[in-house]
Amino acid sequence: MAAHSHNHAHTHDGIDWSSRLTMLRQADELDAEARRVVARRLVRALPEQPTVLDVGCGAGGMSVALVEALSARGGGTVVLVDATPELLDAATAAARAAAAHVGDTTTATVRVRPVLADLATERAAGIAGPAQLVWASNVVHHLPDERAAVVGLIEAVAPGGWLALAEGGLSGKFLPYDLGVGEPGLQDRLSAARAQWFVRMRENTTDSVRMSGGWNLALSAGGLVDVTAFSYLVDHPAPPGPAVRDWAVNQLKWYDEGVGDLLHPADRRTVRRLLDPHDPAFLGLRDDVFLLTANTVHLGRKP
Ligand SMILES: C[S@@+](CC[C@H](N)C(=O)[O-])C[C@H]1O[C@@H](n2cnc3c(N)ncnc32)[C@H](O)[C@@H]1O
């Protein structure tokens, strides 16, 4: 078990995050190469021995990338923050394993510190103190008041430090246009259903506050300067390796369970056939499955 600062923490979005550990781990594996590049790019601008926060760390894919990037340039501290104990433990184990591994050689020591906390009610600055880099990927949109959450993250940034907020980009694709079963173009209809699910998720989030405008505006309004963004691709072309294959089947399962009621019945039948290992249309047997996603990282510096 990781050293938790609290016994209980929960999220506000109605999602059972602990049940998503396998999916998050699978996605981490597929995102690893791209995130390694992002982590190196982000730590390049930091002073010696920085503290880096990975807020809403999930299964710890980026935590590992940050540990490796820091260890390659003199070491530092990576603080992992999440509200889901199972995910925080998994991330801590992965990050510590990476720290131990890189520590074997001539590379520098990286400390890993886990903190169990609900970011909707606790301030990141109070949890971990000033950080030269705060990374928060796809967590702020799970918090009731996104604008207040951004302000809370900015408070945790040391003067001269950076906030890197990964939110949005292009919705991921993994299916060919015409699967040969059902109507062509299923991917786009799945994405449309997911967009509806997202609206519902925000509405069902307890005490949800609507944030109008883009993330860059929230960063600027929070007092950051040099606000900009870049996007990174996660690109695994067909034919899929075992990791992409497993991820794609689990992803389609998520669509079936999460947004099945938002699909046309004919599409739902297609999805069920694609998920049936005994059906010749089973997705897990196809060689034309892939993964292509673009993730946007919004950046700002604290003056
Ligand atoms: C979509 S996952 C993102 C995981 C990881 N950052 C990534 O990009 O792969 C969202 C994460 O936010 C965490 N989370 C959700 N609500 C939270 C809250 N109120 N406080 C802290 N963490 C929260 C969940 O436990 C989960 O690990």
**Number of spatially distinct domains:** 1
Assign the CATH architecture: 3-Layer(aba) Sandwich
Mean pLDDT, nearest integer? Answer: 93
Helix percent reads 40-55%
Question: DSSP strand (E) fraction?
Answer: 15-25%
**Widest β-sheet, arrangement of strands:** 3-2-1-4-5-7-6
Count of helical segments?
A: 9
Counted beta strands: 7
Question: Mind explaining what this structure looks like?
Answer:
- With 303 residues, the protein is of the alpha/beta class.
- The protein has nine helices and seven strands.
- Helix content is 41%, strand content 22%.
- A seven-stranded mixed β-sheet has the order 3-2-1-4-5-7-6, sandwiched between helices.
- Helix 1 packs parallel to helix 2 and helix 2 runs parallel beside helix 3.
- The structure holds S-adenosylmethionine.
Question: What is the element layout, followed by pairings?
Answer:
Elements: H1 21-43, E1 51-55, H2 61-71, E2 76-82, H3 85-103, E3 110-116, H4 124-128, E4 131-137, H5 146-155, E5 157-173, H6 186-204, H7 215-221, E6 225-236, H8 242-259, H9 265-275, E7 291-301
Parallel strand pairs: 1-2, 1-4, 2-3, 4-5
Antiparallel strand pairs: 5-7, 6-7
Residues 11-12, 17, 24, 56-58, 61, 82-84, 87, 118-120, 137-139, 142-143 line the site of S-adenosylmethionine.
